[in-house]
Amino acid sequence: MYILGIESSCDETAAAVVADGRTLCSNVVASQAAEHNLYGGVVPEIASRRHIEAISAVASQALEQAHLTAQQLEAVAVTFGPGLIGGLLVGVNFAKGLAFSAQKPLVPVHHLRGHIAALYLSHPDLKPPFLCLVASGGHSHIIRVKSYTSFEVLGRTVDDAAGEAFDKVSRTLGLGYPGGPAVAKAALLGDKTAYQLPTPKLAGRYDVSFSGLKTAVLNLINQASMQNKPICVPDMAASFQYRVDEILAEKLLLAAQDFKEKVICVAGGVAANEQLRQILTEGCEKMGVQLYLPQLRFCGDNAAMIASAGYYEYLDGNLAQDDLNGVATLSIDYR
Predict the structure, then answer these.
(1) Residues with Cβ < 8 Å from 32, sequence gap 6 or more?
(2) What does the alpha-carbon distance between residue 289 and residue 143 come to, in Å, rounded to a whole number?
């Protein structure tokens, strides 16, 4: 069963074909990262215009690489939320038109459900239930994956997501966009104990917060500037990255301990962070818990994960009507 996935929720225009939710047939991504780097982050209006320019060609390439026509698909799956509304509308409307012209069902996919489904592409043996940390540019959630289409949010960020914090600190340190890879690269030459950064304390047992941590970094940089003292960029990058990774890992392992979960996973762009992977690998070994990590190519936004998630949504009978719209804010446990 072939599903075409369409993804345009932020700054990647992507299309992919996946067979039976697990087998990758094609995966095409048109990235806008280099252009948005000029502005230190994603400019929504520019992003939506680039989606319009790229989406038709990207979808055609995905079908061509899979050696399929639209008529040979079982369904078309598309990210309809959450994300930047302009980008979402481009993807949703293109997918609606394609599905209508090919007379195929249209499957609405939640972006975070897509990130979780990326794990199925990386690990064919993985099946729910399991516990998953989804950390990306706009999201930091700890989720109980009860089934392929049933989710429970245990904790989330109360302000900035981890990816947002990486982007803002990276911009302040002059490291560029996207912030996660830039900070990680600089941190390789730094000392993670050089700067003492705070750990936010929250009422929610599994919630996280990165706004105060980000502000602490900005304050240290401003204070050093006023005192005409240098900031060691690699040391600051290493100290910040370690604190973020430490917080995420601590919350995820705490939830695994409380719920006696034996399988935990990580998904989303931040899942590519090597230090986070190392901390969690060591923590899971101590706890006797099995850890699943996505392949690096499936960490960032892509359409293969949307096609995979779309397969399971399709089997569950979750189909879209003609009035499907983009939704900028949407909880993963919507129904």
Answers:
(1) 11, 12, 13, 42, 46, 47, 50
(2) 16
